[in-house]
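Hi everyone, sorry if this is the wrong subforum. Our group has a chain we'd like a structural model of before ordering constructs, and none of us has done structure prediction before. Sequence below.
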Amino acid sequence: MLTGKTWPAALEAIQKECEVKVWEDSSPIPRSLLMEWLQEAEGLFSTGDVQVNEELLAAAPNLRVVAQSSVGYDNIDIEACTRRGIPFGNTPGVLVEATADLTFALLLSSARRIHEGWEFVKSGSWKNGVNISLGVDLFGKTLGIVGMGDIGCAVARRARACGLKLIYHNRSQRADDQLLEAQYVSFDVLLEQADFIIVLVPLSNNSRGMFGRKEFAKMKSSAYFINASRGPIVDTEALYESLRTNQIAYAALDVTDPEPISGDHPLLSLSNILITPHVGSATYETRNRMANLAANNLLAGLRGEKLPACVNPSVQVK
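Answer:
Right subforum, don't worry. Here is the predicted structure as tokens:
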């Protein structure tokens, strides 16, 4: 069963081998209906808005595989899946470049105040000259990347082309950081030195609330903060206060907590923030590749084969 619509090629591949139930509505599938469908389901294709936990798995006695069309899986209880011998597949790799593009676009757009300029023009205010907030240069500034995985490395490549000095913090130093022309520093040093800070860490118990009042207080008052990972990594109230009081200069977010963010949220009353609706991987090509990989994971699990991308490989066939 599919908890939401997916791309035609992926759905066609699944339908060739399976009897399929698909939740067609744009709203999340009701939990009660999901539980009902899962009573007979052997495979679950999640679109990312379903909590796959012990309660859900207990309602699915025939379930043999879970696949999700995303790289992140903070909505999936991996330990619960593993205890039941259910492999879980995600879609790493295929969205790296698209997400890096979006992340760097947030940096560029916020630094040069692109969307404020567009609003200025659209409102008819562009008559006798430009009178909006000035942006800041990228060239010669320091970019701090928190989480130097594949996406972080792709962002670093883009940053070097703009003449940015690169520092990063990771769980451990990368062996190839000289090739990346990036310097490994402690978390506190990154907060203190970076003119722009980009967050690309996965959500976990260790990273939840990673950026709060203490961390924002250590940043430069001129710092730009960009989060393209997961919303709960940031204490939203702390970010709001830091922006409202100009403790930091600006924030650009592709993810929020809560998500989606309501139109009357206090963050949206501020002039020094840009928010996009979690669209890091939202290109035709990338979303199609993600759906195809998720479909391949699903079908491999149903055949009793190894998943192309498995998060808990210990449960797979040897």
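For your construct planning: The chain has two domains: 8-94+283-315, 96-275. The CA atoms of residues 139 and 161 lie 9 Å apart.
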